Amino acid sequence: MIFFIQKEMVRIKKQLFLKNGLIMAVSALIIRSMNLFFRVFLADRIGAEGIGLYQLTVSVYIFFAAAATSGISLTTTRLYADFSARGEYGKAKDAVRKCLIISVIAGTVLGGLLFLSANFSAEYFLRDERTAPALKLLAPSLPFMAVSACIRGYFTARRKTLPTSVEQLLEQVIEMGVFAAAFALTKPDTLAKACCTAVLGTTLAEVISFVYSLICYAVDIRKLSCKSAAADGLLKKILPVAVPVTANSCLRSGLGAVENVLIPSGLKKNGSDSADALAQYGMVSGMAMPIVTFPSVFILPFASLIVTEMSEAFARHHTKSIRHIAEKMFRLTLLYSIPVTMLILFYAGDIGENLYHNHNVGKFLVLLAPVVPFMYLDSVTDGMLKGLNEQTSYLIFNIIDSVIRVILTYLLLPTWGIWGIVAVIVISEVLNTVMSIARLVKVTDIQIMVFDWIVRPILCIVTPCLLAKPIPCHFTVKILLCLGFYTGMLFLTKKKTVCQ
After folding, report:
1. Could you tell me if 80 and 150 are in contact, meaning their C-beta atoms sit under 8 angstroms apart?
2. What are the structural domain ranges in the chain?
3. Helix 359-368 to helix 319-356 angle, to the nearest 10 degrees?
């Protein structure tokens, strides 16, 4: 009887996992599509140089945002999942409340620091005073962002993805709407003003999404019939999770900001003037990379949800479940990312021309496409490592990766120019993913099936790509035909393997 009850509970959890994953995937698809459209809209309005200036400003903002959100979000998820796994729902409730208080304090302090340091950062770090007003406009968003991240962690632990999906969608709509309206009304005549117009939408979007998140949280928390019980020794539980994750995010985003500063200066040393350097930087970071990361909308939601599943299995010492989940996520990520790589390789030129009317974007896409499987696997592997209490390993790998990126950027760009940026991205993604996978294999003892997970999908997607290339129709139709053929080939080859 107990066996059948446990089996039914596993079935319900699987259904809930898939349902939440699909909700997040659909939401992420809409959000990423809007974000990609927003990038195209920005590029059309402010040009590649403006995109470069915008990316430069955001690099500093990301550092403060990472410090305010990364640790508190995962901590809330882990604490609630750990307490609820032991049936201590009152303590889980109290833990979330205390995490909210911490997020308010952290967000306010970091917002104040960003505002006060804006002029210094613009003049001495970014070396472009045009970024200072935009940084000051972004600073007030941090307290609201921190609380929203905490609430997002709570809903992730509760396996309720609809509120956070709607919140992120609302945020994107407001950001785009405010920018479009402000740009139409003010008609900024300088790149500095245009950059301020863009980030104004970000700040207002964070405020409104915070209000929505808070309402959702207040409604949901009342549904918990248990009374809040003091979670003693909570600081000892928070620090081992929050400190490594926050330190990792801060170090990585901080080194990322250093890298972003080195890129324009490195391009100048290679012979580009200031405007051209920003334009090249914007082309790779603000145009090509969003296309490469766009298809991850169907993978990243599950990478986020897997933290809770792994955390519960780890708390209950279910080693077989951990291994099964890890192998399944690894296999599905490869089966998805490999065709994405091939489609970008075959249709990079069409994508660049149709979206940005710029053939150079296509050249960068061809060089970046091979890192897609590494990039997507890294996200999924990091999610599993977080759930397995491997924050320290995650921290070490990302520090190594970020330091190497900064060193390579400093060394390669003066000689290789824009192609040095591409080289840095490729080396970084491969290195970080290999280190993370090696750790995951060690702690989960998973078996990687090279032929079934890598060789078979490559053969199944290359064939239709070669056949569809000469067909006289729009490239989007060719992509759909290739995906249909790929899915069919996967099904047929899998059936043959089973029959044998």
Report:
1. no
2. 9-448
3. 160
Of 437, 383, 414, give the one whose Cα is nearest residue 264: 414
Query: At a CB cut-off of 8 Å and minimum separation 6, what does 418 contact?
Result: 267, 270, 280, 283, 284
Confidence of residue 15 (pLDDT cuts 50, 70, 90): low
CB 49 within 8 A of CB 191: yes
The verdict on pTM exceeding 0.85 is: no
Dump pLDDT digits (tens) for 117-166.
999 988 888 888 888 999 999 999 999 999 999 999 898 888 787 888 78
Confirm if 263 and 421 have CB atoms less than 8 A apart.
yes
Are the C-beta atoms of residues 497 and 452 closer than 8 Å to each other? yes
Non-local (6+) Cβ contacts of 328 within 8 A are: none
Task: For residue 50, give the amino acid letter.
Answer: G
What count of residues does the chain have?
Answer: 500
The whole-angstrom separation of Cα 81 and Cα 156 is 9
Q: What are phi and psi of 174, to 5 degrees?
A: -65, -45
Instruction: Assign 388 to helix, strand or coil.
Output: coil
Q: Is 86 helix (H, G, I), strand (E, B) or coil?
A: coil
* Closest to 404 (Cα-Cα) out of 364, 432, 368: 432
